[in-house]
Amino acid sequence: MPESKPRPYRIGATLRTTDTALLRGFAALYARGCIDHIQVRVIPGKTFSRDLAAIAASGIPATVHAPHHGHGVNPCAPAAYNDRPLTEIKKHIEQAMNQTLEAADALGAETIIIHAGWYEPGGRSAALDEFSRFLDRHFDPRFTLENLPAVFRGRPMLGTTAEELTTLAGGKITRFCLDFAHLYCAANYLKIPYPEALEPFRALNIRHFHLSNTEDGSIADRHLPLDHPGGGLPFHEVVRCIRARPEVPVSLEYRKPAGFYASQVAVFDAIYRR
């Protein structure tokens, strides 16, 4: 049940569909008001239906995160850095996106977060065209496009700036997810101040926030604890943005058990109130 004294923000935890062993702890967090939602990251596979049924039975309000390049779904360049036959890749994407929509329907989720993905050097224009074709085939009005770091493992990513997200959305996607750590990495890569990188996002229809930390000055997303001693995320800017949109859910992003999330919620609350 929700906590008796509502907080001035909404906060939740992230759970992979394959990590249902953690679900009891997450349900306890929700019952005592520590979190108000879970972000369910869809992992395609044979146990999907069983896992989804268990998550739905928990009754925790949920948003859904579609699989990304790490699980074989790379919308802007399906075959990039993937040595499987293209027919096999496309079949996997079709199954993964069908399962994503099934999860959103089963959980009553209003939000499905997606990544544009990564592409091979020199392939940006083709990647933009391919993402448009992906939307033609799979579009759902719940799609919420997330910003990405400029590079991942040295590979260029699509959807780094607010301008690029708007181009990718193409008038079809009207909802966006702002990942504060991704933006920090992108700002470091582009060598621009974080407030300058953040400002254009204020004009977007932000419907979800992602929050974790990464090393000071890093261009790589590490999903570090918020209170990591080497972390560099400028929380004053993060909190300013969250305060301006208290209705927008904030999902902490870790692959950790409930106890870790409870401690990070407490850390965030202290950051928010100081």
TrEMBL record:
Gene3D superfamilies: Divalent-metal-dependent TIM barrel enzymes (3.20.20.150). SUPFAM superfamilies: Xylose isomerase-like. Residues 53-258 form the Xylose isomerase-like TIM barrel domain. Pfam families: AP_endonuc_2 (PF01261). It comes from the Archaea. InterPro entries: Xyl_isomerase-like_sf, Xyl_isomerase-like_TIM-brl. Transmembrane segments: none annotated. This is Endonuclease IV. It comes from Methanoculleus bourgensis (strain ATCC 43281 / DSM 3045 / OCM 15 / MS2).
